[in-house]
């Protein structure tokens, strides 16, 4: 098989989608990884970092959804049934991850912070993996 360059518009569409995924998914993993150090910086340091991250992550989520539908419009045509099913599952998981991230931002107890944060993080990683399979 010979490798080929993607057409320009396809390159823009997928680059925007993947760039937004790096911020939404990679940002969540990075913030979790830095949390121990952040907490030692002060009582409200974790809350402030979470707020600052939210200003980056929600625009990235919006770009993911917008470019996600752009992806669907561009490639849906003749896809097999399994692809369509995986797309439906992915859209549902993205919605669950978004709602969980929103609830995480509003949670007041450590338990619910952890529960919603975990659902948002795992859902986001799952959406990323499903995206890789959809791209084939
Ligand atoms: C948390 C949100 C999301 C993440 C992390 C994510 C991640 C990804 C990734 C990593 C790819 C693979 C790109 C590649 O390998 O070139 C992809 C592809 C894809 N995504 Fe998403 N995505 C998200 C949301 C969405 C949404 C909401 C939709 C649909 C409305 C969508 C539809 C697609 C489609 C159709 C492809 C295949 C594109 C192609 O083959 O050209 N994604 N996604």
Strand content: under 5%
- Biggest pleated-sheet summary: none
Helical percent range?
over 70%
SS-derived structural category: mainly alpha
What does this structure look like?
By secondary structure, the protein is mainly alpha-helical. The chain has one domain (8-135). Helix content is 85%, strand content 0%. It has four helices and no strands. It has helices spanning 8-39, 45-75, 81-106, 110-135. α1 (8-39) packs antiparallel against α2 and α3 (81-106) runs antiparallel to α4. The longest helix has 32 residues, at 8-39. The chain is elongated. The chain starts with 7 loop residues before the first helix and ends with a helix. The model has no long low-confidence stretch (mean pLDDT 96). Residues 14, 17-18, 21, 24-25, 64-65, 68-69, 71-72, 75, 87, 90-91, 94, 97, 124, 127-128, 131-132, 134-135 line the site of protoporphyrin IX containing FE.
Topology:
Blueprint lengths: L7 H32 L5 H31 L5 H26 L3 H26 L1
Helix pairs in contact: 1-2, 1-4, 3-4
The chain binds protoporphyrin IX containing FE.
Task: Give me some keywords for this one.
136 residues, 4 helices, 85% helix, elongated, single chain, mainly alpha, binds protoporphyrin IX containing FE
Task: Summarize the model shown.
By secondary structure, the protein is mostly helical. The chain is 85% helix and 0% strand. The chain has one domain.
